[in-house]
Amino acid sequence: MLSSVYHDNQPITIGILGGGQLAKMSALAAYRLGLRVAIIELVEDSPAGRMTKLDFSEGWLNTQELERFIEASDIVTLENEFISPDVLDVIAERRLVLPSPHTLRQVQDKLTQKEIMQKAGIPVPAFAAINTVEEAYAFGRQYGYPYVMKTRTLGYDGYGNATVARDNQAMVAFRRFTSDPDVPRTVMAEQFVRFRKELAVIVARNRRGEIVSYPCVETIQTNHICRYVLAPAPNVSSILQRTAQDIAVTAVETIEGVGVFGVEMFLTDDDTILYNEIAPRPHNSGHYSIEACYTSQFENHIRAICNLPLGSPDMIVPAAAMANLLGKRPGSGIPDTVVGLMRHSRVAFHLYGKAASRVGRKMGHITALGSSIEEVFARVQSAEEDLLW
Ligand SMILES: Nc1ncnc2c1ncn2[C@@H]1O[C@H](COP(=O)(O)OP(=O)(O)OP(=O)(O)O)[C@@H](O)[C@H]1O
Ligand SMILES: [Mg+2]
Predict the structure, then answer these.
(1) Centre of ligand 2 from the C-alpha of residue 172, in Å
(2) Which protein residues have their CB within 5 A of the ion that is ligand 2?
(3) In this structure, which long-range contacts are made by residues 117-122, counting pairs with CB atoms below 8 Å and at least 24 apart in sequence?
(4) What would the DSSP string read from start to end of 4-67?
(5) Distance between alpha carbon 163 and the CA centroid of its chain, in Å?
């Protein structure tokens, strides 16, 4: 394995499992650092795959394609935490995989993840494994309805979650999640948190254990999908912001994470911060850092896995707002109204280049920088009104 990133003055190649927008923005950061990028994804012409000649579009389940990808890569990372640990182990026999399969195993199952974080002293909502319909009813009796039933694995953008308000709904959700003929899944239950805000903190940690945390931000979701991010989180005291950062740092150290991680939390009405979950990769709540911080989450991800010194996560402006551009209907990945949006000249515009739009799909994002949250939030909201898909 290579000891140096700029080995014999030859740039190394960062292999990324996945070719979506997170891989694309990570690749852009790697290129800025003079490195090469290889992408493996089961699609031709993925947003990140089209950026490199080292594009392995048969996907990692194809043994020969995986072999070629491993051969082309020096360090391997990922943009999606749902890759089977067996595949990661195969790669890890030959190349450094970061975050490591050990880290990923601790977070891929949300129940195991919560147990590990609770053991580390991190405050979490009440939760339990649910293996039978009777256990689903018992959770409702003990903690009250509504509560949130979650699939323990493979949940994203709320697809594996159901808020259940009574026994009957708990039964329906339990049956739906556990009897999927394609992927039958195990479930857990979690107390419904009446939160004032949702918060998130990005943390970067390199192989030497050097660690930095980004500002505490507010994330605003509709239908379980992130819509806006406000940085720093408005109307949250600096003590609470610090607490959120401390929780995020503890979470990453607990799982011995190397790379960049997004830690999602709830802020309750009585100012308690509860841990929700960790994403072992660059996270939507950190996209604002591309323009708003000295070092973006993507650059720090590359630096962390390469064991380079980390850059400052501090903001270079007092306030930033990010809005996700979500698909509104099935159609092209490039909206007809894209030029209209560009007339909002003080908004940074990112279009991921996905082949097709779908309702709720993350197609791009916009970021505004300024001197107050009110100002930047108003600016992204006015810009997004001009964008139709
Ligand atoms: N215990 C809870 N109480 C109240 N709301 C919750 C709870 N758990 C999740 N939610 C809501 O559902 C959203 C998605 O939940 P979670 O983060 O667990 O799911 P996911 O599908 O893994 O997420 P992501 O959207 O981050 O991919 C949260 O951001 C929050 O708005
Ligand atoms: Mg989440």
Answers:
(1) 22
(2) 264
(3) 117/251, 117/254, 117/275, 117/278, 120/250, 120/251, 120/254, 121/250, 122/247, 122/250, 122/251, 122/254, 122/275
(4) -SEETTEEPEEEEE--SHHHHHHHHHHHHTT-EEEEE-SSTT-TTGGG-S-EETT-TTSHHHHH
(5) 22
3 pLDDT more than 90: no
**Which CATH architecture fits 6-97?**
3-Layer(aba) Sandwich (3.40)
- Alpha-helical (H) ranges within 224-265 are 238-254
- Which residues have CB under 6 Å of ligand 1? 125, 148, 150, 155-161, 190-193, 198, 221, 224, 264, 276-277
What sign results for the dihedral spanned by CA atoms 212, 154, 90, 63? negative
Q: Is the pTM above the cut of 0.70? A: yes
DSSP state of 157: T
Ligand nearest to the CA of 266: 1
Work out the average pLDDT over 272-294.
98
Q: Which ligand is nearest to the CA of 80?
A: 1
Ligand showing the shortest atom-to-Cα distance for residue 222: 1
Sequence-ordered list of residues with C-beta below 8 angstroms from that of 255, at least 6 positions apart, any chain: 103, 106, 107, 116, 278, 280
Return the best residue to mutate from 276, 287, 324, 362 for the ligand 1 pocket (most ligand atoms within 8 A of CB).
276
Banded pLDDT at 2 (limits 50, 70, 90): very low
Indicate the fold that domain 126-191 takes in CATH: Dna Ligase; domain 1 (3.30.1490)
Q: What's the fold here for domain 195-384?
A: D-amino Acid Aminotransferase; Chain A, domain 1 (3.30.470)
Confidence (pLDDT) at 226: 96
